[in-house]
Specification:
alpha/beta, Aspartate Aminotransferase, domain 2, 2 domains, 17 strands, 16% strand, globular, binds pyridoxal-5'-phosphate
Amino acid sequence: MAPALDVQRVRKDFPILARTVRGDKPLVYLDSAATSQKPVAVLDAEREFYETSNAAVHRGAHQLAEEATDAYEGARAAIARFVGASPSDIVFTKNATEGLNLAAYAFSNATAKAQHGSRVDPRFILGPQDSVVVTEMEHHANLIPWQELCAKTGAQLRWIGVTDEGYLNLDELDVIDETTKVVSVVHQSNILGTINPVDLLMARAHEFGAVGVVDACQSIPHMPVDVPALGADLVTWSGHKMLGPTGIGLVWGNQEVLEAMPPFLTGGSMIETVYMDHSTFAPPPQRFEAGVPMVAQAVGLGAAVRYLEDVGMDTVAQHEHDITGYALDRLEQLPGVRIIGPASNVSRGSAISFVVDGIHPHDVGQILDDRGVAVRVGHHCAWPTCRRFNVPATTRLSTYIYNDNSDIDAAVEGIVAAQEFFGVA
Ligand SMILES: Cc1ncc(COP(=O)(O)O)c(C=O)c1O
């Protein structure tokens, strides 16, 4: 059993949580699936970097450039350690969305190059005879890049459906077959909270020689994840959802796959040799980090993972599980409230979507906001998932290490107040 989390002590590390909103209401922040708040350690690390060592990395012969490069590569090593990976397999991107585009563009770039006679790895060449497989619970970030890839190459987009309970319909695994070139799936859904058996999906992808991609945006911040052990070829996630700064995301890649992939963004810092008419590219991860990268953000994210390591990811996961169980129980006891996603605390994380009979989710969100409770409303960038459940939108509460049951109580009181206000109690 992981040690219990001292939430009151943790909260002191997050200055924003001390503020009030909407007049004098204490802030109850239940929107960490959108972005997490940042501890002082992360803010300090970024400021200290700018105050002492700011310089462009991997160039320049001066001391600051050396220190900045050490700080940047040190952050890469810390993040790699956090997910059980080797630093050379970690690529910095702007966010997970860019990471997923990096993956999708590897295929469209390889396909276009092959059409013009360049030698590329055939795994990345797509045509009308091929398929790309996602799920019906993808964030748009892991759907639209693949839709675009299919539009450019003529490949067919397929998906694995979702059951009424909010789990992946594993009876539909056979959409992954000998035509499949890519399987790209979310580890933990941002709208339903469902945790998917990605090892199973990746194994099926590999059975047919497809490249396996995992969107781990909502899992890595909340539970221990040994990234190489997921069995994927590429895994992507964002720093800002795991206490780190905005403007930084990660792609972990199997080295052999990264080496076979054409670059996404091109320019300075990602090259080996440059002539007027052609260039050769640096090995990964530099091949995928064109231009001056987000150095201060990497340093901030390095501090974030050290903070999470100090708390302990087992402790984080246990805390999230307990608070999710409490929230599910409380919501279930409210008449007129329907959870969209797994109603039991099995194979699910802490993002909980729900609808309230007779009240539009935006109105629920507004009444909660009036009381200082910050939740997300809308389709959560998972519009097809909303359609699957015949709802235009949901209200979503999502927690992290700085939340406790009193925050759930505040949300529940707000929902009851909304029901009374709209006369649907
Ligand atoms: C599951 C999932 N995938 C991808 C993303 C996109 O992340 P970002 O906006 O940081 O690129 C999100 C963001 O909410 C997400 O929850």
